[in-house]
Amino acid sequence: MADDNTNATLFFHGRRCRVATSKGKGRGVFGARTVVSAAYTEGLTAIDIATDAIAARTVLESSPVLLFTEEEYSKHGKHTLLDHYTFKWPDGRMALALGWGSLYNHSETPNVSFSINTSSEAITYTTCRDVAPDEELCIFYGHQLWFDNADAVACTSQTGQENGDANISQNPFAGSNSTEVLPEDELPFARTNVIPDEDRIIEEDAESIRKIKVWAADILDKRKTAALLTWIKECGLETNDLQHLKRIRHTKDPPSKSSLLLDKFRDDLHVPPSVPEDLSLALSEPYITEVPLFAAQTFTSLQLKTALWPTVYSPKRTGEGEPWTRGQAAWAWDAVNVLRDAATQAQSDGEAIPYDEDVQNESGMLTSFIAHDTRESMSHPLRHSVLNVVRRVADWRASQISKSISPTPATPSSDMQLASTSEISAISSAISSATSFTPPPVTQRNGMHYLLTGLTLFTTHEPCLMCTMALLHSRVREVVFLYPMDATGGCGGSTGLGTCVPRLKGVNHRFSILRWKGVDEDEAGVDRTLDA
Ligand SMILES: C[S@@+](CC[C@H](N)C(=O)[O-])C[C@H]1O[C@@H](n2cnc3c(N)ncnc32)[C@H](O)[C@@H]1O
Protein backbone atom coordinates (compact mmCIF):
# COMPACT_ATOMS: atom_id res chain seq x y z
CA MET A 1 0.00 0.00 0.00
CA ALA A 2 1.28 3.49 -0.85
CA ASP A 3 2.63 5.56 1.98
CA ASP A 4 0.55 8.76 2.01
CA ASN A 5 3.57 10.78 2.98
CA THR A 6 5.63 9.93 -0.07
CA ASN A 7 6.10 12.51 -2.76
CA ALA A 8 4.86 10.11 -5.42
CA THR A 9 2.42 12.74 -6.68
CA LEU A 10 5.38 14.85 -7.78
CA PHE A 11 5.95 12.37 -10.58
CA PHE A 12 3.19 11.64 -12.97
CA HIS A 13 2.51 10.39 -16.41
CA GLY A 14 -0.29 12.12 -18.24
CA ARG A 15 -1.01 9.03 -20.39
CA ARG A 16 -1.31 11.39 -23.35
CA CYS A 17 1.54 9.73 -25.17
CA ARG A 18 2.59 6.53 -26.83
CA VAL A 19 5.96 5.25 -27.99
CA ALA A 20 6.33 4.52 -31.71
CA THR A 21 9.06 4.38 -34.31
CA SER A 22 10.17 7.70 -35.70
CA LYS A 23 11.73 7.72 -39.17
CA GLY A 24 15.52 7.85 -38.89
CA LYS A 25 15.48 8.44 -35.12
CA GLY A 26 14.64 5.08 -33.55
CA ARG A 27 11.84 5.09 -31.01
CA GLY A 28 10.14 8.38 -30.18
CA VAL A 29 7.18 9.79 -28.27
CA PHE A 30 3.92 10.65 -30.03
CA GLY A 31 0.46 11.77 -29.00
CA ALA A 32 -1.88 9.04 -27.72
CA ARG A 33 -4.25 7.31 -30.10
CA THR A 34 -7.94 6.91 -29.58
CA VAL A 35 -9.92 4.07 -31.11
CA VAL A 36 -12.88 5.75 -32.71
CA SER A 37 -14.57 2.71 -34.27
CA ALA A 38 -14.02 -1.05 -34.62
CA ALA A 39 -15.75 -3.45 -36.96
CA TYR A 40 -15.49 -7.23 -37.40
CA THR A 41 -15.60 -8.57 -40.94
CA GLU A 42 -14.63 -12.00 -42.14
CA GLY A 43 -12.25 -12.81 -39.34
CA LEU A 44 -10.51 -9.42 -39.35
CA THR A 45 -10.91 -6.59 -36.97
CA ALA A 46 -10.77 -3.20 -38.66
CA ILE A 47 -9.91 -0.42 -36.31
CA ASP A 48 -10.06 3.29 -37.06
CA ILE A 49 -7.53 5.13 -35.04
CA ALA A 50 -7.21 8.87 -34.62
CA THR A 51 -4.24 10.53 -32.95
CA ASP A 52 -5.08 13.31 -30.54
CA ALA A 53 -3.92 16.86 -31.12
CA ILE A 54 -2.36 18.35 -28.00
CA ALA A 55 -2.80 21.98 -27.02
CA ALA A 56 0.12 24.28 -26.24
CA ARG A 57 1.28 24.29 -22.60
CA THR A 58 -0.02 20.82 -21.82
CA VAL A 59 2.04 19.08 -19.18
CA LEU A 60 2.88 15.69 -20.65
CA GLU A 61 4.68 14.10 -17.75
CA SER A 62 6.99 14.68 -14.84
CA SER A 63 9.71 12.03 -14.98
CA PRO A 64 11.84 11.11 -11.98
CA VAL A 65 15.57 10.91 -12.77
CA LEU A 66 18.29 8.47 -11.78
CA LEU A 67 21.44 10.33 -10.72
CA PHE A 68 24.98 9.01 -11.09
CA THR A 69 27.92 10.57 -9.31
CA GLU A 70 30.57 12.10 -11.56
CA GLU A 71 33.05 9.40 -10.57
CA GLU A 72 30.64 6.50 -11.05
CA TYR A 73 29.65 7.87 -14.42
CA SER A 74 33.13 8.51 -15.78
CA LYS A 75 34.24 5.03 -14.69
CA HIS A 76 31.23 3.08 -15.91
CA GLY A 77 28.17 4.82 -17.45
CA LYS A 78 30.16 6.85 -19.96
CA HIS A 79 31.35 3.66 -21.66
CA THR A 80 27.87 2.22 -22.18
CA LEU A 81 24.71 2.93 -24.17
CA LEU A 82 23.63 5.14 -21.25
CA ASP A 83 25.83 7.87 -22.68
CA HIS A 84 23.22 8.48 -25.41
CA TYR A 85 20.52 9.05 -22.81
CA THR A 86 22.07 10.93 -19.89
CA PHE A 87 22.73 14.63 -19.42
CA LYS A 88 24.39 16.87 -16.88
CA TRP A 89 22.40 17.74 -13.74
CA PRO A 90 22.99 21.27 -12.29
CA ASP A 91 25.26 19.93 -9.52
CA GLY A 92 27.52 18.04 -11.96
CA ARG A 93 26.02 14.55 -11.57
CA MET A 94 24.71 12.72 -14.63
CA ALA A 95 20.95 12.17 -14.92
CA LEU A 96 18.87 9.54 -16.66
CA ALA A 97 15.20 10.43 -17.06
CA LEU A 98 12.77 7.61 -16.30
CA GLY A 99 9.18 7.44 -17.54
CA TRP A 100 9.37 8.30 -21.20
CA GLY A 101 11.72 11.17 -20.52
CA SER A 102 14.61 9.36 -22.20
CA LEU A 103 12.67 8.65 -25.34
CA TYR A 104 11.95 12.17 -26.60
CA ASN A 105 13.97 12.68 -29.77
CA HIS A 106 15.69 15.90 -30.79
CA SER A 107 14.28 18.56 -33.11
CA GLU A 108 15.58 21.98 -34.17
CA THR A 109 11.98 23.20 -33.91
CA PRO A 110 10.87 21.39 -30.74
CA ASN A 111 7.24 21.26 -29.68
CA VAL A 112 8.08 20.24 -26.10
CA SER A 113 10.07 22.19 -23.52
CA PHE A 114 11.41 20.72 -20.30
CA SER A 115 12.30 22.09 -16.90
CA ILE A 116 14.50 20.56 -14.26
CA ASN A 117 13.46 20.35 -10.66
CA THR A 118 16.42 19.66 -8.44
CA SER A 119 14.44 19.35 -5.22
CA SER A 120 12.13 16.58 -6.41
CA GLU A 121 14.75 15.19 -8.82
CA ALA A 122 12.36 15.27 -11.74
CA ILE A 123 12.01 16.72 -15.22
CA THR A 124 8.72 18.09 -16.45
CA TYR A 125 7.87 17.96 -20.14
CA THR A 126 5.36 20.52 -21.44
CA THR A 127 4.21 21.27 -24.99
CA CYS A 128 5.42 24.70 -26.06
CA ARG A 129 2.99 25.00 -28.98
CA ASP A 130 -0.07 23.23 -30.37
CA VAL A 131 0.88 19.74 -31.52
CA ALA A 132 -0.90 18.38 -34.59
CA PRO A 133 -2.35 14.83 -34.67
CA ASP A 134 0.39 12.30 -35.50
CA GLU A 135 3.19 14.84 -34.98
CA GLU A 136 6.14 13.49 -32.99
CA LEU A 137 6.82 15.11 -29.60
CA CYS A 138 10.41 16.37 -29.62
CA ILE A 139 12.69 18.39 -27.37
CA PHE A 140 15.81 20.40 -28.22
CA TYR A 141 19.04 18.63 -27.15
CA GLY A 142 21.38 21.56 -27.84
CA HIS A 143 23.68 22.56 -30.66
CA GLN A 144 26.28 19.81 -30.30
CA LEU A 145 24.69 16.59 -31.53
CA TRP A 146 26.53 13.26 -31.47
CA PHE A 147 24.42 11.79 -34.33
CA ASP A 148 23.25 12.85 -37.79
CA ASN A 149 20.04 14.76 -37.37
CA ALA A 150 17.33 12.93 -39.34
CA ASP A 151 15.33 16.19 -39.53
CA ALA A 152 18.06 17.85 -41.55
CA VAL A 153 17.16 15.52 -44.44
CA ALA A 154 13.42 15.43 -43.73
CA CYS A 155 13.19 19.26 -43.68
CA THR A 156 14.22 19.59 -47.30
CA SER A 157 11.29 17.42 -48.39
CA GLN A 158 8.70 19.29 -46.32
CA THR A 159 6.18 21.53 -48.01
CA GLY A 160 6.07 25.24 -47.26
CA GLN A 161 2.66 24.78 -45.66
CA GLU A 162 4.04 22.23 -43.21
CA ASN A 163 6.92 24.48 -42.31
CA GLY A 164 4.53 27.35 -41.71
CA ASP A 165 2.40 25.27 -39.37
CA ALA A 166 5.38 24.18 -37.33
CA ASN A 167 6.24 27.79 -36.60
CA ILE A 168 2.86 28.85 -35.24
CA SER A 169 4.00 30.01 -31.81
CA GLN A 170 7.68 30.60 -32.41
CA ASN A 171 9.45 33.48 -30.79
CA PRO A 172 8.75 36.54 -33.01
CA PHE A 173 12.04 38.14 -31.96
CA ALA A 174 14.26 35.12 -32.59
CA GLY A 175 16.56 34.97 -35.56
CA SER A 176 19.17 37.23 -37.02
CA ASN A 177 20.17 40.76 -36.05
CA SER A 178 19.96 40.18 -32.33
CA THR A 179 21.86 43.41 -31.61
CA GLU A 180 19.37 45.66 -33.44
CA VAL A 181 17.78 48.15 -31.01
CA LEU A 182 14.00 47.84 -31.25
CA PRO A 183 11.74 50.90 -31.54
CA GLU A 184 9.71 51.43 -28.37
CA ASP A 185 6.37 50.47 -29.98
CA GLU A 186 7.74 47.12 -31.17
CA LEU A 187 8.75 46.01 -27.67
CA PRO A 188 6.62 43.25 -26.13
CA PHE A 189 6.02 45.36 -23.00
CA ALA A 190 5.00 48.86 -21.89
CA ARG A 191 7.21 50.68 -19.40
CA THR A 192 6.00 52.18 -16.16
CA ASN A 193 7.57 55.49 -15.26
CA VAL A 194 9.43 55.07 -11.97
CA ILE A 195 11.14 58.46 -11.78
CA PRO A 196 9.17 60.99 -9.70
CA ASP A 197 8.40 64.18 -11.66
CA GLU A 198 10.41 66.31 -9.27
CA ASP A 199 13.52 64.22 -9.98
CA ARG A 200 13.19 64.97 -13.68
CA ILE A 201 14.13 68.63 -13.19
CA ILE A 202 17.42 69.05 -15.03
CA GLU A 203 18.82 71.78 -12.69
CA GLU A 204 20.71 73.82 -15.28
CA ASP A 205 20.71 77.19 -13.54
CA ALA A 206 21.93 78.09 -10.07
CA GLU A 207 18.40 78.68 -8.69
CA SER A 208 17.01 75.30 -9.76
CA ILE A 209 19.70 73.27 -7.98
CA ARG A 210 18.18 71.57 -4.97
CA LYS A 211 20.42 71.40 -1.92
CA ILE A 212 20.81 69.74 1.45
CA LYS A 213 22.75 70.82 4.51
CA VAL A 214 25.77 68.77 5.54
CA TRP A 215 28.55 68.84 8.13
CA ALA A 216 32.01 69.38 6.62
CA ALA A 217 35.46 70.24 8.04
CA ASP A 218 38.73 71.44 6.51
CA ILE A 219 41.66 69.04 6.48
CA LEU A 220 44.50 70.63 8.45
CA ASP A 221 46.95 67.74 8.18
CA LYS A 222 46.88 66.23 4.69
CA ARG A 223 49.05 63.28 5.76
CA LYS A 224 46.03 62.03 7.71
CA THR A 225 43.67 62.08 4.70
CA ALA A 226 43.68 58.27 4.23
CA ALA A 227 43.11 57.72 7.96
CA LEU A 228 40.21 60.20 7.90
CA LEU A 229 38.58 58.37 4.97
CA THR A 230 38.97 55.03 6.77
CA TRP A 231 37.33 56.51 9.87
CA ILE A 232 34.38 57.81 7.74
CA LYS A 233 33.89 54.33 6.34
CA GLU A 234 34.28 52.47 9.62
CA CYS A 235 31.92 54.62 11.62
CA GLY A 236 29.09 54.23 9.09
CA LEU A 237 29.08 57.76 7.64
CA GLU A 238 29.20 56.45 4.07
CA THR A 239 25.44 56.55 3.65
CA ASN A 240 23.38 56.18 0.45
CA ASP A 241 22.02 59.72 0.57
CA LEU A 242 25.52 61.20 0.08
CA GLN A 243 26.68 58.72 -2.57
CA HIS A 244 26.26 61.28 -5.36
CA LEU A 245 28.95 63.49 -3.75
CA LYS A 246 32.71 63.10 -3.58
CA ARG A 247 34.09 62.97 -0.05
CA ILE A 248 36.83 65.53 -0.46
CA ARG A 249 36.68 68.99 -2.01
CA HIS A 250 39.93 70.67 -3.12
CA THR A 251 39.81 74.41 -3.67
CA LYS A 252 42.66 76.04 -5.58
CA ASP A 253 41.70 79.68 -4.99
CA PRO A 254 43.91 81.06 -2.32
CA PRO A 255 43.94 79.99 0.34
CA SER A 256 44.02 76.50 -1.29
CA LYS A 257 42.51 73.92 0.99
CA SER A 258 40.92 70.45 1.13
CA SER A 259 37.66 69.81 2.96
CA LEU A 260 36.03 66.59 4.09
CA LEU A 261 32.32 65.82 3.84
CA LEU A 262 31.34 64.36 7.23
CA ASP A 263 27.62 63.72 7.44
CA LYS A 264 24.15 64.92 6.54
CA PHE A 265 22.87 67.68 8.84
CA ARG A 266 19.84 66.44 10.71
CA ASP A 267 17.19 68.79 12.06
CA ASP A 268 16.77 66.58 15.13
CA LEU A 269 20.50 66.39 15.91
CA HIS A 270 22.38 69.66 15.87
CA VAL A 271 25.80 68.22 16.68
CA PRO A 272 28.46 67.11 14.22
CA PRO A 273 29.91 63.57 14.32
CA SER A 274 32.59 63.30 16.96
CA VAL A 275 36.07 62.87 15.55
CA PRO A 276 38.37 60.29 17.24
CA GLU A 277 41.08 61.78 19.41
CA ASP A 278 44.01 60.70 17.22
CA LEU A 279 42.46 62.52 14.23
CA SER A 280 41.09 65.57 16.04
CA LEU A 281 44.10 67.76 15.17
CA ALA A 282 43.86 66.79 11.51
CA LEU A 283 40.48 68.54 11.09
CA SER A 284 39.11 72.04 11.66
CA GLU A 285 35.94 72.58 13.69
CA PRO A 286 33.05 71.06 11.68
CA TYR A 287 30.76 73.59 9.97
CA ILE A 288 27.45 73.41 8.14
CA THR A 289 27.38 73.98 4.37
CA GLU A 290 24.94 73.39 1.49
CA VAL A 291 25.63 70.77 -1.19
CA PRO A 292 23.61 69.42 -4.17
CA LEU A 293 20.80 67.00 -3.30
CA PHE A 294 21.16 64.92 -6.49
CA ALA A 295 23.84 63.82 -8.96
CA ALA A 296 24.30 65.91 -12.12
CA GLN A 297 22.53 64.76 -15.28
CA THR A 298 24.10 67.20 -17.74
CA PHE A 299 27.53 68.83 -18.04
CA THR A 300 26.09 72.32 -17.37
CA SER A 301 24.46 71.03 -14.21
CA LEU A 302 27.72 69.27 -13.23
CA GLN A 303 29.67 72.53 -13.42
CA LEU A 304 27.14 74.40 -11.30
CA LYS A 305 26.87 71.65 -8.73
CA THR A 306 30.60 71.03 -8.47
CA ALA A 307 31.08 74.71 -7.65
CA LEU A 308 29.15 73.93 -4.47
CA TRP A 309 30.69 70.52 -3.79
CA PRO A 310 32.25 67.95 -6.21
CA THR A 311 29.29 65.96 -7.53
CA VAL A 312 29.00 62.71 -9.46
CA TYR A 313 27.94 62.91 -13.13
CA SER A 314 25.12 60.40 -13.70
CA PRO A 315 23.11 61.11 -16.85
CA LYS A 316 20.97 58.01 -16.35
CA ARG A 317 18.96 57.23 -13.28
CA THR A 318 18.44 53.64 -12.11
CA GLY A 319 15.07 52.38 -13.27
CA GLU A 320 14.94 54.66 -16.29
CA GLY A 321 14.18 52.86 -19.55
CA GLU A 322 17.16 51.48 -21.40
CA PRO A 323 17.06 50.57 -25.09
CA TRP A 324 16.22 46.91 -25.75
CA THR A 325 17.71 44.85 -28.55
CA ARG A 326 15.94 42.17 -30.58
CA GLY A 327 18.05 39.53 -28.79
CA GLN A 328 16.94 40.80 -25.37
CA ALA A 329 13.30 40.80 -26.48
CA ALA A 330 13.70 37.19 -27.69
CA TRP A 331 15.16 36.22 -24.32
CA ALA A 332 12.28 37.88 -22.42
CA TRP A 333 9.74 36.21 -24.72
CA ASP A 334 11.20 32.78 -23.92
CA ALA A 335 11.25 33.58 -20.20
CA VAL A 336 7.58 34.58 -20.27
CA ASN A 337 6.74 31.30 -22.03
CA VAL A 338 8.58 29.33 -19.34
CA LEU A 339 6.62 31.27 -16.73
CA ARG A 340 3.29 30.58 -18.45
CA ASP A 341 4.16 26.89 -18.74
CA ALA A 342 4.87 26.77 -15.05
CA ALA A 343 1.62 28.60 -14.26
CA THR A 344 -0.36 26.19 -16.43
CA GLN A 345 1.34 23.27 -14.75
CA ALA A 346 0.56 24.56 -11.28
CA GLN A 347 -3.01 25.19 -12.26
CA SER A 348 -3.61 21.76 -13.75
CA ASP A 349 -1.93 19.86 -10.94
CA GLY A 350 -2.62 22.01 -7.92
CA GLU A 351 -0.89 20.54 -4.92
CA ALA A 352 1.14 18.11 -7.02
CA ILE A 353 3.69 20.69 -8.06
CA PRO A 354 6.81 21.54 -6.08
CA TYR A 355 7.23 25.23 -5.44
CA ASP A 356 10.66 25.62 -6.91
CA GLU A 357 12.39 24.79 -10.12
CA ASP A 358 15.77 25.48 -11.63
CA VAL A 359 15.94 26.06 -15.36
CA GLN A 360 19.04 25.40 -17.39
CA ASN A 361 20.10 26.66 -20.78
CA GLU A 362 21.10 24.37 -23.65
CA SER A 363 24.60 23.97 -22.25
CA GLY A 364 23.24 22.77 -18.93
CA MET A 365 24.01 26.01 -17.07
CA LEU A 366 21.58 27.34 -14.50
CA THR A 367 19.78 30.43 -15.80
CA SER A 368 16.50 30.75 -13.91
CA PHE A 369 14.71 29.92 -10.72
CA ILE A 370 10.96 29.43 -10.57
CA ALA A 371 8.75 29.47 -7.50
CA HIS A 372 5.03 29.35 -6.79
CA ASP A 373 2.82 30.92 -4.18
CA THR A 374 2.66 28.60 -1.15
CA ARG A 375 0.48 30.54 1.26
CA GLU A 376 -2.20 27.87 1.41
CA SER A 377 -0.05 24.77 1.45
CA MET A 378 2.27 26.18 4.11
CA SER A 379 -0.45 28.02 6.04
CA HIS A 380 1.89 30.97 6.02
CA PRO A 381 0.66 34.43 4.98
CA LEU A 382 4.07 35.61 3.77
CA ARG A 383 4.83 32.83 1.29
CA HIS A 384 4.06 34.93 -1.79
CA SER A 385 5.61 33.70 -5.01
CA VAL A 386 7.97 36.68 -5.28
CA LEU A 387 9.30 36.18 -1.75
CA ASN A 388 9.64 32.44 -2.43
CA VAL A 389 11.69 32.99 -5.54
CA VAL A 390 13.99 35.53 -3.87
CA ARG A 391 14.51 32.99 -1.15
CA ARG A 392 15.16 30.29 -3.73
CA VAL A 393 18.05 32.31 -5.15
CA ALA A 394 19.43 32.87 -1.66
CA ASP A 395 19.13 29.16 -0.77
CA TRP A 396 20.95 28.21 -3.91
CA ARG A 397 23.74 30.69 -3.26
CA ALA A 398 24.08 29.47 0.31
CA SER A 399 24.30 25.87 -0.91
CA GLN A 400 27.06 26.83 -3.36
CA ILE A 401 29.05 28.38 -0.53
CA SER A 402 28.55 25.49 1.85
CA LYS A 403 29.71 23.19 -0.94
CA SER A 404 32.86 25.20 -1.48
CA ILE A 405 33.79 25.25 2.20
CA SER A 406 32.66 21.80 3.25
CA PRO A 407 32.94 18.40 1.61
CA THR A 408 29.45 17.41 2.83
CA PRO A 409 26.70 17.95 0.26
CA ALA A 410 24.41 20.90 1.00
CA THR A 411 21.16 19.89 2.68
CA PRO A 412 18.03 20.73 0.72
CA SER A 413 15.97 23.69 1.81
CA SER A 414 13.39 22.88 4.44
CA ASP A 415 10.95 24.86 2.36
CA MET A 416 10.52 22.48 -0.50
CA GLN A 417 6.78 22.50 -0.38
CA LEU A 418 3.92 22.09 -2.76
CA ALA A 419 2.17 24.88 -4.59
CA SER A 420 -1.51 25.42 -4.30
CA THR A 421 -2.34 28.16 -6.75
CA SER A 422 -1.44 29.07 -10.30
CA GLU A 423 0.32 32.17 -9.16
CA ILE A 424 3.98 31.97 -10.00
CA SER A 425 7.06 34.10 -10.23
CA ALA A 426 10.31 33.30 -11.93
CA ILE A 427 13.61 35.02 -11.68
CA SER A 428 15.76 34.97 -14.72
CA SER A 429 19.15 36.48 -15.27
CA ALA A 430 19.42 39.51 -17.50
CA ILE A 431 20.55 38.71 -20.99
CA SER A 432 23.91 40.29 -20.40
CA SER A 433 24.64 37.66 -17.79
CA ALA A 434 22.31 34.92 -18.97
CA THR A 435 25.02 32.30 -19.31
CA SER A 436 24.90 31.08 -15.72
CA PHE A 437 24.55 32.09 -12.09
CA THR A 438 27.91 32.65 -10.49
CA PRO A 439 28.25 31.64 -6.87
CA PRO A 440 29.36 34.58 -4.76
CA PRO A 441 32.75 34.56 -3.03
CA VAL A 442 32.97 32.56 0.18
CA THR A 443 33.68 35.65 2.28
CA GLN A 444 30.13 36.86 1.86
CA ARG A 445 28.55 39.37 4.15
CA ASN A 446 25.34 38.32 5.83
CA GLY A 447 22.27 39.17 3.70
CA MET A 448 24.10 39.31 0.40
CA HIS A 449 22.58 36.01 -0.73
CA TYR A 450 19.37 37.94 -1.25
CA LEU A 451 20.83 40.51 -3.61
CA LEU A 452 19.32 40.34 -7.09
CA THR A 453 21.62 42.95 -8.61
CA GLY A 454 21.54 42.65 -12.41
CA LEU A 455 18.69 40.09 -12.40
CA THR A 456 15.23 40.30 -13.92
CA LEU A 457 12.11 39.04 -12.18
CA PHE A 458 9.28 37.68 -14.34
CA THR A 459 5.98 37.23 -12.55
CA THR A 460 2.45 36.36 -13.62
CA HIS A 461 0.82 38.76 -11.12
CA GLU A 462 2.02 42.27 -10.37
CA PRO A 463 3.87 42.07 -7.01
CA CYS A 464 1.99 43.41 -3.99
CA LEU A 465 3.29 46.27 -1.84
CA MET A 466 5.19 43.95 0.49
CA CYS A 467 6.84 42.03 -2.36
CA THR A 468 7.68 45.23 -4.24
CA MET A 469 9.43 46.55 -1.14
CA ALA A 470 11.35 43.26 -0.82
CA LEU A 471 12.43 43.57 -4.45
CA LEU A 472 13.59 47.09 -3.82
CA HIS A 473 15.73 45.92 -0.89
CA SER A 474 17.07 43.08 -3.05
CA ARG A 475 18.23 45.59 -5.67
CA VAL A 476 16.52 43.72 -8.51
CA ARG A 477 17.29 45.18 -11.94
CA GLU A 478 13.82 44.96 -13.49
CA VAL A 479 10.41 43.40 -13.00
CA VAL A 480 8.24 42.06 -15.83
CA PHE A 481 4.63 41.23 -14.94
CA LEU A 482 1.73 39.80 -16.93
CA TYR A 483 -1.39 40.59 -14.89
CA PRO A 484 -1.79 44.02 -13.28
CA MET A 485 -3.27 43.92 -9.76
CA ASP A 486 -4.79 47.37 -9.53
CA ALA A 487 -6.13 46.96 -6.00
CA THR A 488 -3.10 45.46 -4.28
CA GLY A 489 -0.08 45.88 -6.58
CA GLY A 490 2.97 47.99 -5.78
CA CYS A 491 4.29 48.44 -9.34
CA GLY A 492 1.89 50.97 -10.87
CA GLY A 493 -0.93 48.62 -11.98
CA SER A 494 -2.46 48.44 -15.46
CA THR A 495 -1.87 52.09 -16.38
CA GLY A 496 1.43 52.54 -14.59
CA LEU A 497 -0.14 55.40 -12.65
CA GLY A 498 -1.27 53.36 -9.63
CA THR A 499 0.69 52.82 -6.41
CA CYS A 500 4.31 52.42 -7.39
CA VAL A 501 6.84 51.87 -4.60
CA PRO A 502 9.98 52.47 -6.71
CA ARG A 503 8.55 55.86 -7.74
CA LEU A 504 8.29 57.07 -4.14
CA LYS A 505 10.42 60.04 -3.19
CA GLY A 506 13.56 59.14 -1.27
CA VAL A 507 13.76 55.40 -2.02
CA ASN A 508 17.37 54.30 -2.28
CA HIS A 509 16.94 52.01 -5.29
CA ARG A 510 14.68 52.10 -8.35
CA PHE A 511 14.10 49.21 -10.73
CA SER A 512 12.51 49.17 -14.17
CA ILE A 513 8.90 47.96 -14.39
CA LEU A 514 7.69 46.36 -17.63
CA ARG A 515 4.04 45.43 -18.21
CA TRP A 516 3.80 42.58 -20.73
CA LYS A 517 1.62 43.45 -23.73
CA GLY A 518 -1.05 41.29 -25.39
CA VAL A 519 -2.03 39.47 -22.20
CA ASP A 520 -5.55 38.12 -22.38
CA GLU A 521 -7.31 39.79 -19.47
CA ASP A 522 -9.57 36.75 -19.09
CA GLU A 523 -6.77 34.20 -19.38
CA ALA A 524 -8.01 30.95 -17.90
CA GLY A 525 -7.17 30.22 -14.33
CA VAL A 526 -5.84 33.62 -13.34
CA ASP A 527 -7.08 34.47 -9.91
CA ARG A 528 -7.42 38.26 -9.81
CA THR A 529 -8.79 38.39 -6.31
CA LEU A 530 -5.48 37.49 -4.65
CA ASP A 531 -2.82 39.91 -3.64
CA ALA A 532 0.32 38.57 -5.26
C1 LIG B 1 17.62 10.02 -25.73
S1 LIG B 1 17.63 8.90 -27.03
C2 LIG B 1 16.06 9.09 -27.76
C3 LIG B 1 15.35 7.76 -27.93
C4 LIG B 1 15.91 6.90 -28.99
N1 LIG B 1 15.43 7.30 -30.31
C5 LIG B 1 15.59 5.42 -28.76
O1 LIG B 1 15.11 4.75 -29.67
O2 LIG B 1 15.87 4.91 -27.69
C6 LIG B 1 18.76 9.73 -28.06
C7 LIG B 1 19.10 8.99 -29.33
O3 LIG B 1 18.01 9.05 -30.24
C8 LIG B 1 18.48 9.27 -31.57
N2 LIG B 1 17.94 10.56 -32.03
C9 LIG B 1 17.31 11.50 -31.29
N3 LIG B 1 16.94 12.54 -32.04
C10 LIG B 1 17.35 12.28 -33.30
C11 LIG B 1 17.31 13.01 -34.52
N4 LIG B 1 16.77 14.21 -34.63
N5 LIG B 1 17.86 12.42 -35.60
C12 LIG B 1 18.43 11.20 -35.54
N6 LIG B 1 18.52 10.50 -34.40
C13 LIG B 1 18.00 11.01 -33.29
C14 LIG B 1 19.98 9.29 -31.48
O4 LIG B 1 20.45 8.00 -31.78
C15 LIG B 1 20.26 9.60 -30.04
O5 LIG B 1 21.49 9.06 -29.59
From TrEMBL:
It holds the Pfam family SET. It comes from Schizopora paradoxa. SUPFAM superfamilies: Cytidine deaminase-like, SET domain. Keywords: tRNA processing. GO terms for molecular function: tRNA-specific adenosine-34 deaminase activity. Belongs to the cytidine and deoxycytidylate deaminase family. ADAT3 subfamily. GO terms for cellular component: cytoplasm; nucleus. Gene3D superfamilies: Cytidine Deaminase, domain 2, SET domain. Residues 15-142 form the SET domain. The keyword Hydrolase does not apply. One of its GO terms (biological process) is tRNA processing. InterPro entries: CMP_dCMP_dom, Cytidine_deaminase-like, SET_dom, SET_dom_sf. This is SET domain-containing protein. It comes from the Eukaryota. PANTHER family: CYTOSINE DEAMINASE FAMILY MEMBER (PTHR11079), INACTIVE TRNA-SPECIFIC ADENOSINE DEAMINASE-LIKE PROTEIN 3-RELATED (PTHR11079:SF156).
